[in-house]
Amino acid sequence: MKNFNNFKKEILKDKSIKLAYDDLGTEFEIIRLLTKRRIEKGLTQEGLAKIIGTKQSAIARLESGHYNPSLLFLNKIAHGLNTKIKIEILKTL
Predict the structure, then answer these.
(1) Would you tell me how many other CB atoms lie within 10 Å of the CB of residue 81?
(2) DSSP secondary structure string for all residues of 3-28
(3) Cβ atoms 81, 41 nearer than 8 A
(4) 82/57 Cα distance (integer angstroms)
(5) CA quadruple 77, 58, 55, 70: dihedral positive or negative?
């Protein structure tokens, strides 16, 4: 059986799969960075939820990748973490 890295390398040779994977990469990177910042600040999911006026379960859904958050919600989280989200639109080659 192949290991995950070999499987990933092989499957990403398909251009349509690679495009879909890259599109999801942005979403998961935002989640990773916000979660990292929360942990660096010493906050629990519940603590962050209280700061921004939501429930812990909303933070958990976001961090697990099972929630499609609005930009408003992401900005609320960023503000609660004393940080900002910067979005760039880049032209692809």
Answers:
(1) 19
(2) -HHHHHHHHTTSHHHHHHHHHHHHHH
(3) yes
(4) 21
(5) positive
Domains in the chain, start-ordered, CATH in brackets?
4-80 (1.10.260.40)
Task: Specify the pTM.
Answer: 0.72
pLDDT (tens digit, 9 = 90+) per residue, 2-49?
676 788 788 889 888 888 877 777 888 888 899 999 999 999 999 999
The DSSP 8-state label assigned to residue 54 in this structure reads S
CA nearest neighbour of 62 among 26, 22, 27, 86: 27
Phi, psi torsion values for 85, nearest 5 degrees: -105, 130
CA-to-CA distance for 72 and 43, rounded, in angstroms? 21
E strand or H helix at 52: helix 45-52
State the Cα angle at 24 between 1 and 37, rounded to 5°: 105
